[in-house]
Recover the amino acids of this structure.
């Protein structure tokens, strides 16, 4: 192991922070869904893929301006989130967790097959490059900087919404007791639908930003899925701020491991750390919701 | 195109595609990745190549009057799926042979399994030398170029051109070797390291990464620290697109980038995300047949190439690239050389007849659509089953189209190195 403590090492660390922004944003919607609905959307990364294709379709096929394409992509994925809840989650709300996992796992294949039918197996690219900026011989990607900023804003906004708005408080209350809240007049179906729309919308938002950084293909969810779940579990499933902290930890393992050893080792070390943490602190670095 | 997508979706859903075969037909188990990252990375194009060869042969009455009946299976870009598919094809569908296979990660274990069962396998695209090296396989054959040759080609090319193009002695040329860490990437990288070191070139960095990596910024920072003149890269897609994107964003510069097949063969896909930044990238690969002068090939092959190009264009709307030709050429060799001999001289298409027929192949240079000849290393040789006459070329993607720049004897243009000023990656 040899870490050269120079400007390039510092660049790697800072790029790790930017990667954390992406991972945090990716985990945000999943954490919300688990925190409120108490169901793990195993197919969450595929919803992100839906968002990426949504933006690609609106921008590259329909020719809409990028901001409008992003808005459409987010709205489309929010709708997909609601549909997922209505068709798959809702009938299984009281089913054993394994049934819920298998059902949402099945959705992975459905979404991948639908994407293959709609867009083929080719890699699709927006062809948009936001470029980068340099500071002291270090270079940083604008798309990653924007993603980090969006992730931070989204975390703060979501916390504010959940703790300061009537609707957010109702969602939080429902997450604490899904049986009692309806007795007090809360429309649980509506609240679940809204939560699923927000969760789906966040997947769409992450997808929109990813579409500017990665080529889109039907199985891209498999590339990111394990990382997303690792971040969520390490942060404490359902804990929104925990997800942000875990994203920083995992991203730094990836980049520092990659800098001091080899790129392939960065991921291996991150997963090893995760496994050790599951023995030491199975509830995550911050307590689960 | 919709039919193509429906077909891909059907295969993705676990269905196999194949027409009902009669007892006289030669049953082929054709394994490619129709879905997953390898599909768009070149496997589908290779599959089209194999299907084109099958169609062309069947339209002429088949092999010795026997039709080719393919059963096409999707390996889904997964090793376990590919292995299970091969076993199912051989034991349940009772195919006469399995062929195809894009990924070396699938090819290495599959070859051992098929050989162990004493069944016949014909590898079309996968290039890892580890498929054959010191395994003394008896029933697995590959006329395709292997990874050691890929690795050697780029180093030989750089040694020949260091002084003339870069103005430095080979020992002063700084080279970085980066690669995906599967059998394909590590195989080519080993060829790079061994040959470049032997030739006295200066390797300043060697680094592997997982093909599923979501971020390559740490590796790129290391490359910036090492400041190589030339980067030798072996990868699939989307990792190549990710590398090019992040390299540009992080200000990585070079004088030349040489890719080694797979993702780099499918340059049009990379162009979608990288645009004109792909200009002057080089690729080590078996040549795209349409780039060769048909007069240098055996009589009749020019017409075969013309027909194959026409069919590929009709199907996809674009020019065929190396993956298509790997799928086509290897299949064409099997159908026009090995199978007829197996039937006529060795009594059929059982594994033993096919093995003997393959070992008797003796096609001189210029006798295949990709230019190289065919003669397999025999039992006991270190690379038993590998074609000893295969050879790659180096192609360069330029604004004037793709040119062959090495070997010097058959080049169609001089290499453009270092990158011209104004190029996004020019130092």
């Amino acid at each position: 192991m040899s870490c050269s403590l120079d400007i390039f090492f510092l660049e790697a660390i800072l790029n790790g922070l930017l990667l954390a922004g992406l991972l945090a944003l990716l985990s945000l919607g999943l954490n919300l869904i688990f925190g409120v609905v108490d169901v793990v959307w195993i197919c969450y990364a595929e919803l992100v893929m839906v968002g990426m294709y949504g933006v690609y379709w609106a921008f590259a096929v329909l020719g809409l301006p990028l901001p409008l394409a992003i808005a459409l992509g987010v709205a489309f994925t929010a709708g997909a989130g609601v549909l997922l809840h209505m068709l798959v989650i809702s009938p299984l709300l009281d089913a054993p967790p394994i049934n819920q996992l298998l059902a949402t796992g099945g959705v992975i294949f459905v979404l991948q097959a639908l994407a293959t039918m709609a867009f083929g197996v080719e890699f699709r690219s927006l062809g948009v490059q936001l470029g980068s900026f340099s500071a002291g011989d270090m270079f940083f990607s604008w798309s990653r900087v924007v993603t980090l900023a969006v992730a931070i804003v989204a975390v703060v906004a979501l916390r504010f919404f959940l703790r300061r708005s009537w609707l957010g408080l109702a969602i939080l209350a429902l997450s604490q007791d899904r049986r009692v809240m309806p007795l007090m007049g809360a429309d649980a179906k509506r609240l679940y639908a809204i939560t699923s729309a927000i969760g789906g919308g966040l997947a769409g938002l992450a997808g929109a930003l990813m579409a500017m950084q990665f080529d889109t293909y039907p199985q891209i969810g498999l590339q990111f899925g394990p990382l997303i779940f690792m971040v969520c579990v390490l942060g404490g499933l359902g804990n929104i701020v925990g997800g942000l902290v875990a994203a920083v930890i995992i991203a730094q393992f990836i980049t520092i491991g990659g800098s001091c050893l080899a790129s392939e080792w960065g991921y291996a070390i991150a997963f090893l750390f995760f496994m050790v943490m599951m023995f030491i602190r199975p509830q995550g670095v911050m307590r689960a919701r | 195109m919709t039919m193509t997508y429906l077909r891909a979706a059907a295969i993705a859903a676990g269905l196999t595609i194949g027409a009902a075969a009669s007892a006289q037909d030669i049953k082929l188990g054709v394994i490619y990745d129709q879905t997953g990252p390898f599909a768009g990375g070149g496997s589908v194009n290779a599959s089209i190549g194999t299907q084109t060869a099958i169609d062309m042969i069947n339209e002429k009455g088949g092999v010795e009057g026997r039709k080719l009946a393919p059963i096409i299976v999707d390996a889904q870009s997964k090793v376990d799926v590919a292995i299970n598919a091969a076993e199912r094809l051989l034991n349940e569908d009772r195919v006469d042979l399995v062929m195809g296979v894009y990924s070396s990660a699938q090819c290495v274990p599959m070859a051992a399994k098929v050989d162990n069962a004493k069944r016949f396998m014909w590898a079309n695209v996968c290039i890892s030398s580890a498929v054959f090296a010191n395994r003394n396989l008896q029933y697995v054959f590959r006329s395709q170029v292997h990874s050691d040759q890929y690795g050697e080609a780029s180093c030989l090319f750089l040694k020949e051109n260091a002084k003339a193009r870069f103005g430095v002695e080979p020992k002063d040329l700084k080279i970085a070797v980066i690669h995906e860490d599967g059998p394909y990437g590590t195989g080519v990288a080993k060829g790079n390291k061994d040959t470049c070191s032997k030739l006295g070139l200066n390797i300043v960095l060697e680094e592997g990464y997982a093909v599923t990596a979501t971020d390559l910024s740490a590796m790129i920072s290391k490359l910036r620290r090492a400041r190589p003149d030339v980067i030798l890269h072996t990868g699939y897609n989307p990792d190549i697109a990710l590398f090019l994107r992040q390299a540009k964003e992080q200000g990585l510069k070079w004088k030349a980038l040489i890719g080694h097949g797979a993702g780099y063969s499918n340059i049009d896909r990379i162009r979608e995300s990288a645009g004109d930044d792909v200009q002057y990238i080089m690729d080590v690969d078996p040549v795209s047949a349409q780039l060769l002068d048909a007069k240098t090939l055996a009589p009749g092959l020019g017409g075969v190439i013309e027909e194959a190009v026409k069919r590929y264009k009709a199907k996809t709307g674009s020019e065929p690239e190396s993956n298509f030709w790997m799928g086509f050429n290897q299949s064409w060799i099997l159908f026009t050389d090995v199978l007829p001999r197996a039937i006529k001289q060795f009594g059929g298409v059982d594994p033993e007849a096919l093995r003997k027929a393959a070992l008797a192949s003796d096609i001189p240079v210029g006798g295949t659509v990709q230019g190289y000849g065919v003669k397999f290393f025999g039992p006991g040789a270190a690379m038993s089953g590998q074609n000893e006459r295969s050879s790659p070329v180096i192609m360069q993607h330029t604004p004037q189209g793709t040119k062959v720049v090495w070997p010097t004897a058959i080049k169609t243009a001089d290499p453009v190195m270092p990158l011209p000023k104004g190029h996004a990656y020019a130092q």
Q: What stands out?
A: The radius of gyration of chain A is 19 Å. Chain A touches chain B through 57 residues (CB under 8 Å). The CA atoms of residues 257 and 266 of chain A lie 4 Å apart.
